[in-house]
Specification:
heterodimer; A: 272 residues; alpha/beta; six-stranded mixed β-sheet; four-stranded antiparallel β-sheet; B: 264 residues; mainly alpha; 10 helices; 88% helix; globular
């Protein structure tokens, strides 16, 4: 995708990861250039979220290297990792807002924890971030009073509070109505460009992603099975990509979970 | 034969799991102590938890203390009167409360009111990825969430136990002096003469401090270690109450045998 390695913000080389005996990732190579919006797509349980956690340093790779801004994440100690995370923003699947704090306090949280800025300045910064996601008027609400889409936008404002170099999204479109989905999609693109940040988005919402991202990686069974720009993937004849983009129920990703033949199960099968 | 093997296997697995959890809890406690600095430097975090654990437990402590004292007054007078020692009611009530009932019953109530709330709160924060979000914001959840709740519990518990004992003495006085007619002067003067500050009161305070630390540690650990599902949270809450109650009763026996053995 990119030849100049110095332009890469995130780079994964032959990354493997296992939860105990269960291998999740089997040799992932992935590159994310600065300033781009990159989507990691794939079916549920294929290891997409694990990839984000490896990049954020919440998990350590069993083998291979995960580099962010030229530093090997696996080799960082806690202090160095926290230093790096101050320049990362992450949006969790359902927002993960602090339920005992108002919208304002949620967005102010990283600023208060990591800076000694006076209250007036923090207030202005929080209102600017909330304004960017269209929720300045909701500053005094509590998370329980927000809809799913609004909570996601507040979490987005919180993720960009410290103007991060890298913003990561874990299933940002899950469970949203079509309007909220479009709003979040546009915000992801606009905020990335406005902040000069880099975005990695884990999702399985293909239609929304094709409109806003620069590059897509498809993950299946712990490996990258396809990659390309949205236009390349739309034109792709690869059966795996075709099945995913056209939402075919059966194909390289089987409809049925592996099992013995149906007649065997029904006639000679085990007792209930 | 297979059944027996499975039983042994399950027993072994449960034992290994139990030992592993104790080890993990010990490491967790060390980590908690290491990251406790922020609870002191940003004291408002701890004060907030003292409010939630301590102030919001006041009602149940005050009411329970009063009723326990009243029951002690009734039962104590009934028994003492048989030996013609009804005037010693103040001694019986105050020693029972300061040495045993104050720390133990307040500890059990504290576990079921504040401990349970702390486990539920931390567990729910884990289930809804709030702890992960905090960690990804480069804010250590143990320093920011766990330690203030632990110290809030440690500080609240001795104060609640003292209040429980005070209310109990008041309840005993109410029944003994006001309703039954024990002499007011004898009630207080015998209590003053018999209760030793260092031996009775301070040992009670030490007990309540130990119970507070135990309950607070169990509560934060179970919340932090819970499986992030509805079922996991429910199991963690149950474990907090059951483990706290057993720990308080077992520790009470150990502390009592160390503090009061062979002395009167």
């Amino acid at each position: 995708m990119v030849s100049e390695t110095d332009n890469l913000l995130v780079s994964l080389k032959d990354v493997r990861f296992a939860y105990g005996e269960r291998e999740i990732l089997r040799g992932i190579d992935l590159k994310v250039p600065r300033g781009k919006v990159v989507a990691i797509m794939g079916g549920s349980g294929c290891g997409k979220t694990t990839l984000l956690r490896l990049i954020g340093g919440q998990l350590r790779a069993t083998a291979g290297t995960v580099e962010v801004a030229g530093r090997n994440v696996s080799s960082l100690n806690t202090a160095e990792l926290y230093e790096m995370r101050r320049r990362m923003g992450m949006l969790f699947q359902f927002g993960a807002l602090f339920t005992d704090m108002s919208v304002f306090d949620n967005v102010a949280f990283p600023l208060r924890e990591h800076t000694d800025l006076p209250f007036g300045l923090i207030r202005d910064m929080v209102l600017m971030k909330l304004n960017a996601v269209g929720l300045r008027g909701a500053a005094d609400l509590m998370p329980a009073e927000l809809s799913g889409g609004m909570a996601r936008r507040v979490a987005l404002a919180r993720a960009i509070a410290l103007d991060p170099m890298l913003i990561m999204y874990d299933e940002p479109f899950a469970g949203l109505d079509p309007i909220s989905l479009g709003v979040i999609g546009q915000l992801i693109r606009k905020l990335n460009d406005a902040l000069g940040a880099t975005t990695i988005m884990v999702t399985h919402d293909i239609m929304e992603s094709l409109q806003i991202v620069d590059y897509i990686y498809f993950v299946s069974e712990g490996g990258i099975v396809a990659e390309g720009t949205p236009d390349e993937l739309r034109a792709s004849k690869d059966p795996w990509v075709y099945q995913f983009i056209h939402a075919e129920p059966d194909g390289p990703v089987p409809f049925h979970y592996p099992a013995e033949a149906l007649d065997q199960s029904l006639i000679g099968g085990r007792s209930a | 034969m297979n059944g027996l093997l499975n039983f042994i296997r399950r027993l072994g697995a449960a034992a290994v799991e139990g030992v592993w959890r104790i080890g993990f809890a010990a490491r967790f406690f060390m980590l908690l102590l290491r990251h406790s600095g922020q609870s002191l430097t940003r004291i408002h975090l701890t004060v907030r938890e003292i409010y939630f654990s301590g102030v919001l437990s006041l009602l149940i402590i005050v009411v329970s203390g009063l009723f326990v004292g009243m029951v002690l007054g009734l039962q104590g007078y009934e028994t003492l009167q048989r030996y013609g020692s009804g005037d010693a009611l103040g001694v019986l009530v105050s020693l029972s409360l300061t040495r045993e009932l104050g720390p133990v019953v307040a500890g059990l109530l504290f576990a079921s009111r504040a401990g349970l709330a702390v486990t539920a709160e931390i567990g729910l924060m884990k289930t809804t990825e709030q702890l992960d979000a905090m960690d990804m914001m480069a804010v250590n959840p143990i320093a920011r969430v766990v330690a203030p709740r632990f110290w809030g519990g440690v500080i609240s518990m001795p104060l609640l136990a003292a209040l429980f004992s005070a209310m109990g003495v008041f309840g005993g006085w109410l029944i003994g002096v006001v309703f039954i007619g024990v002499d007011d002067g004898a009630f207080w003067s015998q209590m003053q003469a018999a209760v030793d500050f260092r031996f009775d009161i301070m040992n009670g305070v030490i007990k309540s401090f130990v119970f507070g630390a135990t309950v607070a540690l169990i509560a934060v650990f179970e919340g932090y270690d819970c499986t992030p599902t509805a079922e996991g949270l429910s199991r963690a809450i149950t474990r907090t109450v059951v483990t706290s109650a057993l720990a308080i009763l077992a520790l009470d026996f150990v502390l009592t045998s160390l503090m009061f053995r062979g002395q009167s």
